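Before the break, one more example. Copy the sequence into your notebook; we will annotate it together after we see the structure.
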Amino acid sequence: MLSVILHCKARLLKIKLLILLFIFVGCIPAKNLRAQNVKLNGTVYDYFSKKPLDAVTVQTSTGSRTITDSTGKFVVMVAKKDSVWFSYLSKNTQKYPVDTISDFSNFEVALYVAANWLPAVKVRNSNYTFDSLQNRMEYAKVFNFRKPGLKLSSASPSTYVPGSVTVGLDLDELINMFRFRRNRQILSMQERLIQEEQDKYINHRFTKYLVQKLTSLSGPQLDTFMAICRPSYELLQPMNDIELGYYIQQCYKLYETKNKAENSLFQKREE
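Here is what the structure looks like once it is written out:
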């Protein structure tokens, strides 16, 4: 019995020593690796325009990855025996060995961007009515959502059984009544979509071009006037174009009167 206990203790001791050995051996390379890693700062430019390129992928052979910002700058961790390369519009550059980079604080790279690399651009004229209909179709379930309540359902003629009850409570509506979180989320999204639709309607009719044509305002004064006199959806919706023009002219008269009064008051204070 004693020999069995001693044998078990010896085995446990060996296991502990092996675990400590693995931990020690595993920590040494990791420590050395961290010591070898350095931070590489750089900027990516367009070869022809000399302008910084954003959204360029920067990759290293050890698996580090980052993307250039709006100013073309990037920061990535590299090892001494690492290589770094750049990817833009699915095109990769050559690999640059880290040990050949002289300045880790400012590694500049110029990419040659050929015209045939760029994706085709399709131009579509903005059409408020078309966009509004598309939006209504895309989010039809949200726009048509109504808060669930008690409703009656009737059996389909094809499934009617003589002598059975043909009218009863709509179980789906009954279940949806207690789906409070889902109902709140849909109603919130519905309100947001309706507000966006109304804002687009106002922007479609109350335009800078129309206001400038009727008032001759421009620059900051035009922006200020449009912000102050922007009509609500409820006010604008029943107006026709002639009534909208009259509304803008009347607002402009009030705007001019207010400006003259403020200028007059300012002059009196100076005197």
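Confidence is low (pLDDT under 50) at residues 27-35, 117-125. The CA atoms of residues 136 and 143 lie 7 Å apart. Try to locate both features in your own notes.
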